[in-house]
Amino acid sequence: MVTEQKSTWPSIGPFYEEGAEGFRTEEMILNLGPQHPSTHGVLRLVLKLEGETVVQCTPVLGYLHRGIEKILENRPYMGGIRYMDNADYLSPMLNETAFVGAVEQLMGLEPPRRAQYIRLITNEMQRIASHLVGIGTYGLDLGAVTPILWCFRDREGILSLFEALGGSRFNVNYMRIGGVLHDFPPGWLRRLEQWLDQFEHHSLPELDGLLTGNEIFEGRTQGVGYIDPQQAIAYGLTGPCLRASGVSFDLRVDRPYGAYREIKVNPQVRQEGDAFARYRVRFQEMGESVRLIREALDKLPGGPISARVPVALRPPRGETYFAVESSKGELGIYLISDGSEYPYRAKIRGPSFVNLSILPELLRGHKISDVIAILGSIDIVLGEVDR
Amino acid sequence: MTLFTQIWNWLIDINGDGHGALQFIITFVFSFGFVMTSAAVLVYLERKIMGFMQDRYGPLHNGPWGLYQIFLDPIKLLLKEDVSASVTDNVVFHMAPMVFFAPVIASFVILPFSPYLTTSALETGIIYYVALSSLDVIGVIMAGWGSNNKYALIGGLRSAAQMISYELPLVLSLVGVVMLTSALSPACQGAHPNLAKCSIGSISLSDITVQQMHPWWLWFVLIQPLGLLLYYTCGLAETNRTPFDLPEAESELVAGYLTEYSGMRWALFFLGEYGNMVIVSSVATALFLGGWSGPGADLGFWTSHIGTLPGEIVFNIFATAWFIIKMYGLLSVFIWVRATLPRLRADQLMRFAWLVLIPLTLANILILGVVLLAIPGITLKLVVAGIINWIMLAGYIAFLGRVTGVSPVGRLPKRAQARLRVPEPIKALAPVER
Question: Which residues pair with A25 in a beta bridge?
Fold first, then answer.
């Protein structure tokens, strides 16, 4: 027998309403997640459904909260880098760059030019890797099983290169305050160029042919989850989600940092503002990243890879905010230093969290299938949402 | 009288004589064994073929090329615990797999693997097949309802809508073949066709197979390619395969109506689905690809060369092999499609069935009917009908994108269209020099 259970869901008004001619239609409350194949982690969405149409969506966050910000405050500055890897676990290099950049900015430190170029190369590789996961899982969300395996195959090349570089595939712990951990090992650059050739000339066109021109894929994504440019700015969206709505804002261009001051980025912008545009922006950014890596490899300067930094870092008292263009958007680190070895306060402005805030607004009136299509197109990482 | 002799006598009673009873036993064992093993073999094939397409190995560790996987999968499923939640509707929940699986087994009766290996050459083969294939939906709805799970319920209801919608074009796409059999029937040919009997085609799978053998390569796919494509598309929907796998859409509904099932009950659904695929492919083989015909499947040749009984045996082996080869060819297209396409949305699925498939099947029937009536001479009839159908097929494929894109969801909303007219990207922030 079904017994009435006490609901722990947020109160969302009357449970049913009287329909025409005495028929009673009930709205159904569907608990999507936290254990669900396509919520990209442990996101929980409480959906109020009318048939298959979403009337209301309430995201419930916090299932992956590990207190990364608090951990950062309880570690020396150098010890925090490793924990930044776990925030957006699909782009650790970018997280580390944001954190060490913030500390450097706090100390007024400028890493050597070669270190900045190495950061750019690894960051763009990480961006490709993250977008590959984003596109692959998006295909899987829409029911296509092949793209994810092709994407992970290509991503594997990047992870192997990272392993050769930093000793670890995933949580690389490669950036250091004032520079990077190691210089490129022998033969690494040749391997990277081989991978770039293979990726640009085989993998990208292949993936493009499988997804972009596919009628079903276009039918599922075009016109779905449309975000107005004004709306996007109002919700504070950044990254591919913002650029797909026709707003040309890219921190690498508008607030350039590191080697991006010397290597110009062409921001990838599309006007449509729907899920398909977001997918396309990611796709074009991968090509742009390949171009950036090639350019950086051509211009790669010599010299030291790290500035001389004391072992016990004591940045001067003060606060700073430093942001990089992560694969998901603006990844900002806010640090307050009280002059001791530990940050007084560390705050991560995660792009996934901010981008997710538009979800309830977007989902209203869409079908369940579109819920997945829209959620996937925003490309969140729960490690960064919950931190 | 022992039980065995009772059964034997009963078989002789219904089959006429001892030979008939023996044939019944052989074909029954073959068909039943085939349905039981085909699912396991198909799973292995699917994993291997999709592995090839996705740059990975697939099963590799158990036996050569991972072949033991075929036996180990069913063993694993049989040994697994059968979990059922305490709040399920017990009777419905436990009956659903059987209701789903029984029609699949029953459908195997009509498959003409070869002239000898046909359990029952039913005169009403197509009707029987269509009727049974539409029974599956009851099992799915029962599973969806009985599970007392919201995902399962949505999956079950989606499945009901989908299977009912695609049943229509599935049947209509087979009508073309039946019309061709009527044109090819002896009463319809000659200088003075008997018009009263001319309209009677055949709906028996065995008969239709035989009609495609004069000469042996005159398969109906040459005259009805569009019919095969439409039938195949509907078959994908009937078997809940990609791109029509909404009822068990993994990324949306976890596992749809299968969510609450485990162990052998789940395996029955699984077996039923793969069995359904085998049946859809078999029917397509029999109706469009000439069934068991092929080089070597020539009874007269073998009986005249190596004697009557050995000749018949060799002939039947060849015929069965041809049937299975063609069938697995179609099945691998199922797998290919799964590796390629994403999934449609529910409303796009319905729109596709009602606005594209049904009108096309009706147009196919109409045009074929006009050609068969208006044009004299059987050869000319077939040639003209074939040419028109190939042109229709080319047009359908060329405009497939446009007809599926007709849906308003394929277009941008008005606000987005208005936005498209803005020529330059908005600058949110002026560049800041650091």
Answer: A17
H-run or E-run covering B308: helix B308-340
Interatomic CA distance for residues A380 and A359, integer angstroms:
11
Cross-chain CB nearest to A146 (options B340, B345, B430)? B340
Range B88-93 contact pairs with CB under 8 angstroms and sequence separation of 24 or more? B88/B146, B88/B147, B88/B148, B88/B260, B89/B145, B89/B146, B89/B148, B90/B146, B91/B146, B92/B142, B92/B145, B92/B146, B93/B142, B93/B143, B93/B146, B93/B147, B93/B260
Examine the predicted complex and report whether its ipTM is higher than 0.85: no
Check residue A290 and give its pLDDT: 92
pLDDT of A355 > 80? The answer is yes
For the question of whether the overall pTM of this predicted structure is more than 0.95, the answer is no
CATH for A68-386, options being 3.40.50.150, 1.10.580.10, 1.10.645.10, 3.30.310.70: 1.10.645.10
Q: Are A90 and A168 in contact, with CB atoms under 8 Å apart?
A: no
Q: Which two tokens stand for residue A26?
A: 């009930």
DSSP 8-state secondary structure symbol assigned to residue A244: T
- The answer for residues whose C-beta is within 8 angstroms of residue A83's C-beta and 6 or more apart is A68, A71, A72, A75
Q: If you compute the radius of gyration of chain B from its CA atoms, what whole number of angstroms results?
A: 25
Inter-chain CB proximity A372 and B252 less than 8 Å: yes
Contact B428 A2 (CB under 8 A): no
Taking CB atoms and an 8 Å limit, are B339 and A217 in contact across chains?
Answer: no
Identify whether the C-beta of residue A185 lies closer than 8 Å to the C-beta of residue A165.
yes
Question: Is the Cβ of A220 closer than 8 Å to some Cβ of chain B?
Answer: yes
- Chain B partners of A222 at a C-beta cutoff of 8 Å? 409-412
Q: Please name which of A140, A156, A143, A148 lies closest in space to residue A207, comparing C-alpha atoms.
A: A148
Opening angle at CA B382, ends B378 and B383, nearest 5: 115
Whole-angstrom Cα distance, residue A322 to residue A341? Answer: 19
Averaged pLDDT for residues B5-21: 77
Helices of type H across B119-262: 125-133, 136-146, 150-184, 195-198, 205-211, 225-238, 250-253
**A287: closest CA among A210, A201, A383, A227?**
A201
From CA A310, how far away is CA B153, in angstroms rounded?
Answer: 63
Which A residues, 35 through 94, put their C-beta within 8 Å of a C-beta on chain B?
A: 36-38, 52
Show Cβ contacts of residue B397 under 8 Å, excluding neighbours closer than 6 positions.
Answer: none
DSSP classification of residue A306: B
In which band, very low, low, confident or very high, does the pLDDT at A2 lie, cut at 50, 70 and 90?
A: very low
How far apart are alpha carbons A182 and A180 in whole angstroms? Answer: 6
**Neighboring chain B residues of A41 at a CB cutoff of 8 Å:** none
Distance from CA of B203 to the nearest CA of A (A): 35
- C-beta atoms of B54 and A150 within 8 A: yes
Min distance B344 CA to chain A CA atoms (Å) = 6
Quick one: average pLDDT of A236-246?
88
Residue span(s) of chain A under CATH 1.10.645.10 come to: 68-386
Q: Which of B390, B67, B16, B47 is nearest to B220 (CA)?
A: B390
Residue B129 contacts by C-beta under 8 Å, 6 or more apart in sequence? B107, B110, B205, B279, B283
Q: Cα separations (Å) of B132 from A204, B129, B257, B265, B423?
A: 45, 5, 20, 20, 58
- Nearest CB to A149; choose among B54, B242, B407: B54
